[in-house]
Amino acid sequence: MREVYGRRDFAIIGELVEPQTRVLDLGCGEGELLAWLKEHKDVDGRGVELTGPRVQKAIARGVSVYQGDLESAVEDYPDRAFDYVILSQTLQETRDPLRVLRGMLRVGRRAIVAFPNFGHYTVRLSTLRSGRAPKTELFPYDWWDSPNIHFFTVLDFEALAQKEHWRVERRIFLHGQRQVKMFPNLLAEIAVFLVTASS
Amino acid sequence: MATTQMVTESASATFEKIELDSGVTLAPVEVAYETYGELNAARSNAILVLHAFSGDAHAAGEGGWWTNMIGPGKAFDTDQYFVICSNVLGGCRGTTGPGSINPERGCPWAMTFPAITISDMVRLQKLLIDHLRIPRLLSVSGGSMGGMQALEWAVAYPDRVASAIPIACTARHSAQQIAFNEVGRQAIMADPDWCGGNYYGGKPPANGLAVARMVGHITYMSDQSMREKFGRRLRTPDQFEVESYLKYRGYKFVDRFDANSYIYITKAMDDFDLTQRGALPTLFERARTRFLLISFSSDWLYPSYQSLEIVSALRSRNADVAYCNLEARYGHDSFLVEVEEQTELVRGFLTSTFKEEARQGIKSRA
Questions:
Q1: Smallest Cα–Cα separation from B323: which of B349, B299, B353, B294?
Q2: Which domains are seen in chain B, by residue range?
Q3: Which residues of A touch B (CB under 8 A)?
């Protein structure tokens, strides 16, 4: 599988986004994905990023990025302002993930959420073996300096989608360079969901 | 870094008249301006740079107020863009202001000069841009009062500006900003040499104007930058370094600035309030302009919340806006001195705007 800026989730998201659409990328970092989408899909993109030097890099790249906290930023946009709202590898770092997801589905017709799967077998084994907070390639942090404050699995996300009556249009699971077709909750390192609010 | 020689032109244009917000017609009106670089054949690479309160048309080249930002290979790259800067209406550096001769009476206007506003300043700039036959500006940009003018451009002439870069500015002056300006005005008017504004041909109110400028300089710096620059160092046994600096800057200002212009222009800044014309999101409804707003962490005169107010309004309209609050230590002066980071932002923003404009142009011709 091809990578975008060394990020597998970017490659997947790049394929999910239709050309000439309006895209909001929450936690957009240095704007690599938005720049790629602009170049290859001719999207009208916006980004939100908190860290100053990343915002500077993104703007220098020509991407329209707003420096601010994504959790409050998503509240400011009008309803249905975007075709896609992207949250890549950040949901587990937000204080109020449900509020973020609801906000995404208010301002966007579709939400694309990529997250590391806490149900991956290496994570389970790590905890079983050590009896301590998991530390794996996927979650390399010590518990006391981890940016991740919510841990959830593929099944957890599916359950939430059902509870909130969201329609999952696409689900893509990744392990290394490969797509995972079976037992995603056990074998997927990264999950990418394309979700709409069922009307 | 490019080493190209920058094509520079210094000129002035006279227009028959200008209608002011106050209802008064000023006739004729003269505007001093400079240009840097060359206008391309499509007339699509023009950038209007807007000076702050005490600036003038001389933005680039030796001694220019934004010379570190405008030139070959710089943020406003004159190898690519045609940069224009004019002195504001009410100014004293070649554009009609209170020190100009009132043609009806054959003597300087002084305090009989009509009240002016930020939108009057922009209306005069618009006459100049029409005169230069530029259908659409690639960008309007400036810091402080220049930023207010950039906002005014985007609100008043949304179809004429592809992008705006308002830096360290506000949609309306706060009580604190008005207060500092009022101290400056009172200092001038308390000087016996002011003579109700009729000092032309005689002795100008040098002490009052110098004090006004000293107050201004304090507000442009930050506690940190003042500590670093002066500390408690002594210049002479009975004078601190900071005292000497302020006096030097204050009295130097008298040589190049007219006290009545100080009064008129600070009033225009204080009266500026975009929200009087409607809620900000409604005002920006017609804006098809791309925005880049920049504020500075140590700027307490134009704090970042004022930029954020504008950015929030633009975002609520889903306008194309980029915003960055740069970590900077020099207070409000940062927009003149923190060049490196601004250059990175402005260059990237202009490049992508220019590309997008060219694309839209091709689309609309197809």
A1: B294
A2: 8-172+272-365 (3.40.50.1820), 176-270 (1.10.1740.110)
A3: 44, 46, 52, 55-56, 59-68, 73, 76-78, 81-82
Which pTM does this prediction carry? 0.94
Determine the length of chain A: 199
Q: Which residues of A touch B322 (CB under 8 A)?
A: 59, 63-66
Are residues A64 and B320, on separate chains, in Cβ contact within 8 Å?
A: yes
Which residue bears the tokens 């995603």? A184
Report how many Cβ contacts below 8 Å link chain A to chain B: 61
- Looking at 3.40.350.10, 3.40.50.150, 3.30.1330.10, 3.40.980.10, the CATH number of the domain A8-118+151-197 comes to 3.40.50.150
Q: What's the pLDDT tens digit per position in B133-187?
A: 999 999 999 999 999 999 999 999 999 999 999 999 999 999 999 999 999 999 9
Distance in Å, alpha carbon of B351 to nearest chain A alpha carbon: 7
ipTM score for this prediction: 0.92
CB within 8 Å of B286: residues ≥ 6 apart: B155, B158
What residues are paired with B77 via a beta bridge? B71
Contact list in A for residue B315 (CB cut-off 8 A) is 66, 73, 76-77
Q: Where are the domains of chain A?
A: 8-118+151-197
Q: Which residues of B are catalytic?
A: 144, 299, 332
pLDDT at position A3 over 60: no
User: Is residue B242 a contact partner of residue B230, using CB atoms and an 8 Å limit?
Assistant: yes
The pair of three-digit structure tokens given for residue B160, joined into one six-digit string: 């004429």
In whole angstroms, give the CA distance from residue B129 to residue B162: 14
